[in-house]
Amino acid sequence: MERTLAIIKPDAVERRLVGQILARIEAAGFTIRAMRLQHLTKQEAEGFYAVHRERPFFPSLTAFMSSGPCVLVALEAPDAIRTWRALMGATDPARADAGTLRKEFGSSIERNATHGSDAPETAAFELRYFFRGMEIF
Ligand code: ATP
Ligand code: MG
Asked: Which protein residues are within 6 Å of ligand 1, measured from CB?
């Protein structure tokens, strides 16, 4: 079994897509191990995306991620990291495969509805960033 961090980003929460996205997560066989609605501060978004701090899109990305509440979810499944990224689709919704969440629910390369950890080390960092051990079931 493997765990990954999923985020339903502020654009998707604002558009009331949380229920549909969680239904897709559960239908795909993931177990939800922790979950919380949270409005990140700019500083919390900057810490989460620290690996991107030199990128030109960093100020806009962190402003967007702190623009409203998001849903933080710890997912568990065999091969959870890869499987969740496949369900999300490519970063840019315009390039994402049909049937993926970003294709269906994303509006731009920035406002792309969901996040997923990209490797075991980043999943460990991201899960620890948002959840204490006691909050993961
Ligand atoms: P995420 O980390 O959110 O799961 P990802 O791994 O597919 O997405 P990254 O390259 O890690 O993509 O970029 C992190 C986030 O930054 C993207 O999900 C998107 O919201 C935003 N982003 C990435 N590239 C761009 C870009 N060229 N312009 C604007 N925003 C971008
Ligand atoms: Mg990433």
From this structure: 57, 61, 91, 109-110, 112, 115-116, 118
